[in-house]
Write a structure and sequence with these properties.
It contains three helices and 14 strands. It has a four-stranded mixed β-sheet, with no helix packed on it. By secondary structure, the chain is mainly beta.
């Protein structure tokens, strides 16, 4: 008589998601001490969420039933398939929600004061420079329309510059109106800011006034 034995294996799937936290697109970075994969049923598992530099751990979500959570660690016994998500957000200042990581390009001192300072003395605080996608160390770098005019094909083109753009900031919105004394500004379009010259083109439709709008400044 032939006998066989088997060992029950169940799946534990651990997913690390770099989730956006809040309305300021405060995405952070991090890693997990365990990888996604198969683990023996009945095994005790403790997973640690490890925030990246200038990031913080915000919590666990997913299949958290029958687990024990102690800040960055989550512990449980493997009893079936499980999917977990660790959420990280960037460390940001109270003043203006400016990421430490962005400020650290130029300083590693007093993050709160740095956000409200105007390093290049151009009249815009470092907080405003961050959300505008401009260089806080260059007084010639601030958000303004630098070019406007007709181009081939009957189109009208606006242009402006960005520098040191954090890819997490929201798009720059273009608004227009036909009369500065009455009426309201209307949405005309938007553009994800990138370093260098940025341009928006639209078909000509009479006289219009345009402005650039930061959509998610605190």
């Amino acid at each position: 008589m032939q006998m066989t034995t088997s060992k029950m294996i169940t799946s534990l799937v651990v997913l690390l998601t770099m989730a956006l936290a809040g309305t300021s697109q405060a995405a952070g970075t991090g890693t997990l001490s365990h990888a996604s994969g198969w683990y023996n049923a009945g095994s005790p598992i403790t997973i640690t969420a490890i925030p990246g530099t200038y990031s913080q751990f915000d919590g666990w979500s997913g299949d958290t039933a029958s687990t024990t959570v102690a800040v960055e660690q989550i512990s449980f016994t493997v009893d079936g398939a499980r999917s977990l998500t660790a959420t990280f957000s960037s460390d940001r200042t109270t003043n203006g929600l400016v990421p430490y990581e962005w400020l650290a390009t130029w300083t590693n001192m007093n993050w709160e004061a740095s956000a409200t300072n105007d390093w290049d003395r151009d009249g815009f605080t470092n907080e405003e420079e961050y959300w505008s996608g401009t260089d806080p160390m260059n007084s010639a770098s601030f958000l303004q329309i630098s070019g406007a005019g007709r181009q081939d094909g009957g189109m009208f083109r606006l242009s402006w510059s960005h520098a040191n753009v954090d890819p997490r900031i929201p798009p720059i919105v273009i608004e227009r109106r036909t009369n500065l004394l009455s009426g309201v500004w209307e949405y005309a379009g938007e553009l994800n800011p990138t370093n260098g010259i940025n341009a928006y083109a639209t078909s000509l439709s009479g006289y219009c006034y345009y402005r650039l709008v930061i959509t998610n400044a605190p």
